[in-house]
Amino acid sequence: MNDQPPKLGTVPSKEQVGRAMRGFMTDFGPTAALAMESCVHCGRCAEACQFYVQTSDPRYTPIHKIQPFRQAYNREAGPFAFIYRLFGFAPSVTATELEGWQDLIYDSCNMCGRCSLICPMGIDIADLIEQARHGMFEAGLAPSDYLGTLAEKEHATGSPFGLTVPQFQQALHDIGRQHGVVMHVDEAKADIVPTISSIDLKTYPGSMAAIAKILNHMGASWTFRTDGFDADNVSLTAGDRVGQAAITRGIVDAAIACRATTLLMPECGHSFTEMRWEAANVYGKDLPFRVMQITELLAEGLADGRIRVNKVTQSATYHDACQVSRRGGATAAPRASLQALGVDLHEMEDSGDSNWCCGGGGGVALINRAKSLRAKAFEIKQHQIEATGAPTVYTSCSGCRQTLDHGGKATAWTKSVGSLLELVADNLAVDNPTAAKPKD
Ligand code: SF4
Ligand code: SF4
User: Fold this and answer.
1) What are the two backbone dihedrals, phi and then psi, of residue 122, each rounded to the nearest 5 degrees?
2) What is the rounded CA–CA span in Å between residue 208 and residue 176?
3) pLDDT tens across 286-300, in order?
């Protein structure tokens, strides 16, 4: 991948401010300045943000998180910057201040969009924070431990863990054998192209087998593509706009290469919103295929009979991933699947589009120093899950699943955390007669 980003921690202090300001200028500054002018200071966004609610720290008020960046833009790059400097309306920004602001836009923001949903003025603070991260990344100020490091690797190799094509091929082969499921790889023509999340490959490989099992059961024409498979897009959460676009473009091109009609996003939140809302911008025109999150395919297949399941006897609650439900629009689909399975669903307070983040979204799970903040945010979710009385919580995002798993271990939790995708795959009815049969 070309256009290498600045190496973390290597940009001299005197260059950092200029680089950051150029990044803010690109799209954040004017929009943020306008948003700040529209703010009526009602405070509703504060009550929507888990980091403020759990700490009562006024720095974590959503609108405050972009305030320093707005001031910096006004002074350094905005159309009236000269006046701001002349009359001292805003002090000059220092590299030390920029470093201090990492806490505001990385460590204490899940980009969950709860504040954006509640704002009566329609200010999309989550989007502004995403844009502010671009400037920080340009200045080499993405958190080096460890989100920024992963983004650097993704930028250089196309995978946050540096996974090569032969390694991916081998992993697919191994998962297929281990789970007794046919893996279709690099077929020249296929209707459905599923992508993966690196978290699944590393931690939950069973979910990749589950996708294959379900697509085979449906008798679908499908293939993994080794020229565009990893949809994680750590670059998005780190703020690397070039890397983000390259990952997206690679997946779009891979789907087009095999004339796919459906690009299937895995149980991963940010990869879904990137493909659903941003990919057409990267491609430059309408995508020649539809983008579906796996829960949407499950609901569609269960409704039209292409997926048939045995009923289960269990009660459970469902954790909405912010990017799948509120930001992605797939709120009803997982519930339709749970209903088709016969799950006795105990909804949490604030479920669906009003859900609280698990605490790890927006790359926060990948920032080691944010551990205690993350744990505080997780407490809300933990209490809400416990209040349902259900023994199991299902979700459709492996990032959330991992955060819930880690949070549960840290608090000696007795709840079990599961994947909705795997629940469907584990309870498929007799094989669809048109489905492919596993080979040795
Ligand atoms: S909810 Fe909107 S208008 Fe109210 S304080 Fe927050 S950003 Fe401003
Ligand atoms: S996007 Fe979520 S975490 Fe970030 S400021 Fe808004 S409510 Fe808080």
Assistant:
1) 70, 30
2) 9
3) 999 999 999 999 999
Note whether 109 and 351 are within 8 A (CB).
no
Question: From CA 97, how far away is CA 103, in angstroms rounded?
Answer: 11
Q: Which residue's alpha carbon is at the smallest distance from atom 6 of ligand 2?
A: 115
Rounded Cα distance, 215 and 196, in Å: 14
Write out the two tokens for 238.
């780190």
Its pTM stands at 0.93
Distance from the alpha carbon of residue 220 to the mean position of ligand 1, in angstroms: 47
Residue 119 Cβ inside 6 Å of ligand 1? The answer reads yes
pLDDT tens sequence across 240-287: 999 999 999 999 999 999 999 999 999 999 999 999 999 999 999 999
Query: Which residue of 37, 41, 129 sits with most ligand 1 atoms within 8 Å of its CB, as the best mutation to test the pocket?
Result: 41
CA of 41 to the centre of ligand 1 (A): 5
CA distance 25 to 230: 30
Q: Nearest bound ligand to CA 111?
A: 2
Pocket test for ligand 2, best of 49, 56, 117 (most atoms within 8 A of CB): 49
Nearest C-alpha neighbor of 28 from the set 101, 107, 108: 101
The answer to whether the CB of 283 falls within 8 A of the CB of 417 is no
Q: How far apart are CA 383 and CA 172, in angstroms?
A: 38
Nearby residues of 360 by Cβ (< 8 Å), 6 or more positions away: 110, 374, 378, 399, 400, 402, 403, 406
Per-residue confidence band for 210, with pLDDT thresholds at 50, 70 and 90: very high
User: What type of residue sits at position 83?
Assistant: I
Alpha-carbon span 245 to 284, nearest angstrom: 11
Ligand 2, pocket-test mutation among 45, 47, 106, 110, most atoms within 8 A of CB: 110
